[in-house]
Amino acid sequence: MKEKPPGTFAKIFSALTSPFVSSAPTIIFEADSDFSHITIVENEGIRTLYLGSMAQEAETSIQVANPYAPVFEYPGIMLLALALCQKNKNILLVGLGGGFIPSLFQKYLPEHKLTVVEVDPLISEIASIYFYFNPGKNVELVIADGKEHLKSKKVESFDQIWMDAFSGDYIPQHLASEDFFILCHERLVEGGLLVQNLHISRMHQYFQQLSDTKKIFPSPPLVFKGRRSSNAVVMSYKSPAIAHTLKTITKAAKEFGPQVGPYDLTQEANKLSIQRYDF
Fold first, then answer.
1. What span, in angstroms and rounded, lies between the C-alpha atoms of 242 and 237?
2. Co-location of 171 and 269 in the same domain
3. Distance between terminal CA atoms of the chain?
4. Is the model's pTM score more than 0.90?
5. How far is Cα 192 from Cα 190, in angstroms, rounded to an integer?
6. Which of 3, 14, 132, 211 would you call most buried, defined as having the most Cβ atoms within 10 angstroms of its Cβ?
7. 233 touches 184 (CB < 8 A)
8. Are strands 188-199 and 158-163 parallel, antiparallel or unpaired?
9. What is the pLDDT of residues 2-33, one digit of tens each?
């Protein structure tokens, strides 16, 4: 187990208050937690969080001058889940990252309750200080392993469970196992939705696992791919299934909002490439 760096907060505030002017990427924070190597880079007003190697995919990026402005594409696709499922008031998100999606809930979706589960305490500190995330009235942060939290008898049922808990392109094995899928199914209300943000390079592995557990979520999942990201968002309904098309998705987005903060859900729907997987 890696040792936490001494004086973490002192390092953070020192980095934030130290002046620097550079057009090249600048590392403003770097440390090892018990769970990952964490690096935060800033370049031309964009602040980015990496877990593991910087050669891997970034976890979160924000515009420092406007933290609610979209940088990544996948949050807008995930937000479509709110329009595509009538059960959408009580959401569980596994994986905090920089806290961009929870911040959207806090600012723009006050009628929706979001519980965020993050295993790494240092990530929660970084999200607050570097990415301006703070839990609010409708957003609760729980420091725990996602699977263990779902197993707790004290945990309620959820309308939707959102998974955003990978590092680079790696998904923790215990969050992609048969017993985890069973647990998600048990914690979802009837008609609820499991939503997973995945790296495209892991799609084959994921669907192989899902094909082995299709008795849990028997309806073929919907896979949404944007135009510019290397991510795909996979949605699996707890029965009954809904056979969505681009037309029905756009209609649902219009009826839901369609604007959620910086994201126009109808525009997000128009960018989609939809696949339905049958096993």
1. 8
2. yes
3. 40
4. no
5. 5
6. 132
7. no
8. parallel
9. 333 334 444 444 444 444 444 678 999 999 99
Tell me 238's DSSP state: S
Task: Give the angle subtended at the CA of 119 by the CAs of 156 and 58, to the nearest 5°.
Answer: 115
Instruction: Tell me if 68 is assigned to some domain.
Output: no
Tokens of 165: 């808990």
| Residues pairing with 41 in the sheet | 27, 48
- Rounded Cα–Cα distance for residues 171 and 186 (Å): 21
Domain assignment present for 100: yes
Kindly report, residue by residue over 40-82, the tens digit of the pLDDT.
Answer: 999 999 999 998 877 677 889 999 999 999 999 899 999 999 9
Query: What are the residue ranges in the chain where pLDDT is below 70?
Result: 1-23, 55, 166-171, 201-214, 276-279
Final residue in a domain of this structure, among 36, 63, 90: 63
Q: Which runs of consecutive H residues, i.e. helices, occur in the chain?
A: 8-17, 74-84, 100-108, 121-131, 146-151, 178-187, 203-212, 246-256, 265-270
The DSSP result for 28-88, as a single string, is EEEEE-SS-EEEEEEETTEEEEEES-TTS--SEEEETTBTTS--SSHHHHHHHHHHH-S--
